[in-house]
Structure formats: C-alpha cells, structure tokens
UniProtKB/TrEMBL annotation:
<dbReference type="InterPro" id="IPR027417">
    <property type="entry name" value="P-loop_NTPase"/>
</dbReference>
<keyword id="KW-0067">ATP-binding</keyword>
<dbReference type="GO" id="GO:0005524">
    <property type="term" value="F:ATP binding"/>
</dbReference>
<keyword id="KW-0418">Kinase</keyword>
<feature type="binding site">
    <location>
        <begin position="12"/>
        <end position="17"/>
    </location>
    <ligand>
        <name>ATP</name>
    </ligand>
</feature>
<keyword id="KW-0963">Cytoplasm</keyword>
<dbReference type="InterPro" id="IPR001977">
    <property type="entry name" value="Depp_CoAkinase"/>
</dbReference>
<keyword id="KW-0808">Transferase</keyword>
<comment type="pathway">
    <text>Cofactor biosynthesis; coenzyme A biosynthesis; CoA from (R)-pantothenate: step 5/5.</text>
</comment>
<keyword id="KW-0173">Coenzyme A biosynthesis</keyword>
<dbReference type="GO" id="GO:0015937">
    <property type="term" value="P:coenzyme A biosynthetic process"/>
</dbReference>
<dbReference type="GO" id="GO:0004140">
    <property type="term" value="F:dephospho-CoA kinase activity"/>
</dbReference>
<keyword id="KW-0547">Nucleotide-binding</keyword>
<dbReference type="GO" id="GO:0005737">
    <property type="term" value="C:cytoplasm"/>
</dbReference>
<comment type="similarity">
    <text>Belongs to the CoaE family.</text>
</comment>
<comment type="function">
    <text>Catalyzes the phosphorylation of the 3'-hydroxyl group of dephosphocoenzyme A to form coenzyme A.</text>
</comment>
<dbReference type="Pfam" id="PF01121">
    <property type="entry name" value="CoaE"/>
</dbReference>
Length: 202
C-alpha cells in the first residue's frame, strides 16, 4: 500500500492547481475524489439510475447525462436531499478511491478529497496537506468561475468545513491567496519532505 498524502481545501482554494504541480513536475499519482464522483454518476451507472429514480426526469439532461447545475441547486437548498445523495454516493466513491490507491506506482499517492474533513476521511492518509485561502478569496473565485451569485457562493462555503476545522487536522499547509504564490517552490519543498519521511520509514 502506497504512502498517502491527503490533499484538501475549501472550494476554489486551488487544490487542482497544487495537485497538477505534484503530478506534472514530480510524477506523483493523483487520485481525485471529484473525478471519481463524476465517474460513479456517468451515463449507464447504477449511481445515475438511483439519482433519476429519486429526483425524477428533471435531473437528466437531453443527452442522458446528469444535470449537475440542477442537482447542485437542489442539494444546497434542501439539506435532507444533500444527505440522501451523500449516503448514496460516498460508499461508491470510497470503494473506487481504495481501488485506485491499490494501483499507485509513484513514490507516494496524492489523494485529493475536497470534503476530507467533513466526511472524516483523515484515516485514509498518513499526512494531510491543506490548501488554505481566505473566505473572501473563495467567494470571489467561485462567483467568477461558476457564474453564481454571492449568496450561492456563500451557501456552498457554509456547507463545508471552516478554515479552522481544516487547519486543525493539517500536517502541512499551502497558502494560496495570491495569484503569484510561488506554488512550485512550496510543492517542491513538500515533495522532498514526503520522500524523506518515506525513506525514514522504510
């Protein structure tokens, strides 16, 4: 089983950018819970069928794929529907993550889980790396990226763990508030640190 670094952070904190540097510059295998979450509700999957049975035809686009915008609107308006969806998808996602971790070929694996703290998945990783940004930065980035209102962006933030809750479980932190954050140098430093930890534990 590979040494696992759990990468997390709030919405629009820059997790994907950080993960991409680990992968591109150091060849680290990335297992992304968001990508897996999309795979388990792809066309023809039991996940999508269960969602359609629960929410009705309105949740399916004309091409037969999931209407993500509609689903997001529902689950952030009705907490009980979010709970239902989580109970359906989380076991599927965890199973796929575990399968992917068993196939890692790089020195360690980067397990990218946006809701790592909320779903108490810290046990899946030997170290937790948090990408940290201010809430005001998150809100501005979400509005710009997803074309949502400030209130919608605020609702999404409110549904996630707070910065302090994430930082409380962090072994390592990357601050990513500014555009020119020199992310590469910080990722390089952490990569060397993880290799040193692994070699010490061999």
């Amino acid at each position: 089983m590979a040494f696992v670094v759990g990468l997390t952070g709030g919405i629009a904190s820059g997790k994907s950018t950080v993960a991409e540097i680990f992968s591109r510059d150091f060849g680290i295998d990335i297992i992304d819970a968001d990508i897996i979450a999309r795979q388990v509700v792809a066309q023809g999957t039991p996940g999508l069928k269960a969602i359609e049975d629960h929410f009705g035809q309105k949740i399916i686009l004309d091409d037969g794929s999931l209407n993500r915008a509609k689903l997001r609107e529902i689950i952030f308006t009705y907490p009980e529907e979010k709970q239902w969806l989580d109970q359906l998808l989380h076991p599927m996602i965890r199973e796929e993550m575990q399968r992917a971790l068993n196939q890692v070929n790089s020195a360690y694996a980067l397990l990218v889980v946006p809701l790592l703290v909320e779903n108490q998945l810290q046990h899946l990783a030997q170290r937790i790396l948090v990408v940290d940004v201010s809430e005001s930065t998150q809100i501005e980035r979400v509005m710009l990226r997803d074309g949502v209102s400030r209130q919608q962006a605020q609702n999404i933030l409110s549904s996630q763990a707070t910065r302090s809750e994430r930082l409380a479980v962090a072994n390592d932190v990357i601050k990513n508030d500014t555009e020119n954050n020199k992310l590469l140098s910080r990722v390089t430093e952490l990569h060397q640190k993880y290799l040193a930890i692994i070699s010490k534990n061999l």
